[in-house]
Amino acid sequence: MKNLGLVETKTKADNALPRSGGNVTGDITITTDTEIAWRRNTDMAAIGFKNTGDGDADSYMWFKTADNGNEYFKWQHSLSGGGISEWMSLKSDNLRVKGYPVYHEGNKPSAADVGAYTKSEINNRFIPLNTNAKTSGYILAKAANLYDDPSSRHLGRSGFLRPNGIDNLGDLAIHVAHPSTEGPEHARGISFNYGSSGDKFGLSTYTFDKDGKFQGKKKILTEDDKDSLGNVPVGVPLPWPQDKPPSGYLICNGDRFDKSRYPQLALAYPSGVLPDLRGEFIRGLDAGRNIDSVRKVLSFQEHSIQSHSHSGVFTGAFERESGGRGGWGATNTNGNTAATGGNETRPRNIAFLYIVRGA
Q: Which part of the chain is the Phage tail collar domain (predicted)?
């Protein structure tokens, strides 16, 4: 047996790992490209090794499964109390860690996955900065529409409202709340009428006091408000009930004004001189009526009384007085010839200060 070399063969066989399995107590070194594979029926899982050179690109270890694509690699952990915990799995669709998918360039999370809005939802809910955008939703929450929910108004928040006439706040409103309060204290706002209303350009401003009490609203004048002072042309003298003009106005006292500073006023008074209306009455220009035809605009006229004469009728018999002079029919009178009245002829009047708007 020794001569046949069977002793050595038997020794190798005794030290070999049976095909049925066993324990290996030493190192295993593989010096060629090869794979360790498990195969059963048409399924297969393999671990491969590649080392054809010293370069890093030529040395690697690979895992492979084969069948219908359902096989995958798992990294499992045996628990001390029994059972197995799956730490990581790699399948054809994705890599998962403890059951959760790993996001990457080819598997990006959706808005729903991370609790975010989609781009379409963002465009419907918000207005992007510095972008031409059209929103299909409310700028504020729909609850700000008091026509739908009258109890939803929160005047401690700034925003756009649709009061629809509630609490005298108009049909539509821009409400500005004070940042340090939770209610309407110190709040201001601008209210609008509906564009379909009779006063479709109507604007008002409203206010609340420090205690949050509504103080009413005031109309904001527009060019449709013909009676507003702002529509009086610059240069028209206005009677003012105080001895000093308000800010932005000049007294009609005959002084010069700066035409470069007040260009609109200079159009009315090209000479740069205001009329002196102190103590004067204003008279309408004749303008072809032929009552005061010699007058020009801004010309001065002295006071006068209408031309007239006095006449008298004397009745009764005439008698001659001894010592009298003047002949028959002479009379004596005791009429007063002293001057009476003031230094001018005038009607009753009330004094105002004439002013013009400086613009």
A: 235-282
